[in-house]
Amino acid sequence: MSKKVAILGAAGTLGACSAFTLATQGFCDEIILIPHRRENLVKLYQIDLEGAVSGMNQTKIWVGGKEALREADVVLVCAGAPWHQISSRMELLEDSLPVAQEVGELLGRYARPDAVIINLTNPVDPTNWLMQRLSGLPRERFIGYSFNDTIRFRRLLAIHLGVPGTAVDACVMGEHGSHQVLLFSSARVNGVPVAVSEKIRSEIVAEIPKIVPRLEELGQGRTVGWTCSIGVAAQVKAVLEDTGEVFPCSVVLDGEYGRRDLSATVPVRLGRGGVQGFPKLELDAGEQAQVEACLDFLEGTVRSLEARFPKVCRAAGVSS
Fold first, then answer.
1. For residue 68, what pLDDT is reported?
2. Helix/strand/coil (H/E/C) assignment for every residue in 61-108
3. What is the radius of gyration, based on Cα positions, of the chain?
4. Is pLDDT above 70 for 319?
5. In angstroms, how far apart are the furthest CA atoms of the chain?
6. Which of residues 93 and 162 earns the better pLDDT score?
């Protein structure tokens, strides 16, 4: 069975970092770099990457047009609007909607029906909903990348608990943004549940909203490409190797958590078909209330988009 990954928007930080990580890990047969813009830069990346991994593995790296999407088992959507300084990812929505519309229609035309799409275009939750609906691809095969929230949560837990980062497991649900829900009840150290004090909880909750502004204030016109590339590579591997590993991903819900027709981060089991199941976490009362409030927010965001995209409403059988 083939293991081909296409990267749409390969010239940007997310696309380039993901290409490098996938190429060096060596579990893909082919990596197809598809420019959204700056085609010559993508050609340079292809030459450089090919040389970099030539003594490491047999991964084939090549540059293709949109028609090359037909060959991919997994498509990474790394296309996005031009960078500008923000304090919240949701501020990117207006600029990202034309990109999401273009990409959704492109995937509907060229992506294979059995391909798995991993979307990294921010704000991930509404763009994931829009792309999936416009593409007509099954929701199980459309994954919004929000794993960075969980990676950061685990790192902060490790620091505050005084343990190695590799020992910590925990999960974030909800929005890939300011409404994310930190599930302290899911915290584990070396697989053992751990009680997190109220002091540590409050310190971590206070730290999370500072992360995006701290990065943006540096004014460098890029985002956290290496963190994303590590998380993306883990998810791509789970899909291609059909591992069934559980990740928090933004997916379009259809009755899960009592919601339909919105995309939100929930734990899912990943494999060759994309989402293979929805493992349930036991939430405490406070977390459950936070999740409900977050889903209300995301539902309101999606409903506000429906009048602007009537084609999506017709395809989904939703009345606007």
1. 97
2. EEECCHHHHHHCCEEEECCCCCCCCCCCHHHHHHHHHHHHHHHHHHHH
3. 19
4. no
5. 56
6. 162
Distance CA 124, CA 320 (A): 22
Model pTM?
0.93
The overall average pLDDT reported for the chain is 91
Q: Is 36 a catalytic residue?
A: no
95 pLDDT tier (thresholds 50, 70, 90): confident
To which H or E segment does residue 31 belong? strand 30-34
Note the pLDDT tens digit of each residue in 219-228. 777 777 899 9
Point out the catalytic residue in the list 84, 160, 176, 179. 176
pLDDT classification of 88: cutoffs 50, 70, 90 = low
What is the 3-state secondary structure of the chain?
Answer: CCCEEEEECCCCHHHHHHHHHHHHHCCCCEEEEECCCCHHHHHHHHHHHHHHHCCCCCCEEEECCHHHHHHCCEEEECCCCCCCCCCCHHHHHHHHHHHHHHHHHHHHHHCCCCCEEEECCCCHHHHHHHHHHHHCCCHHHEEECCHHHHHHHHHHHHHHHCCCHHHEEEEEEECCCCCCEEEEEEEEECCEECCCCHHHHHHHHHHHHHHHHHHHCCCCCCCCHHHHHHHHHHHHHHHHCCCCCEEEEEEEEECHHHCEEEEEEEEEEEECCEEEECCCCCCCHHHHHHHHHHHHHHHHHHHHHHCCCHHHHHHHCCCC
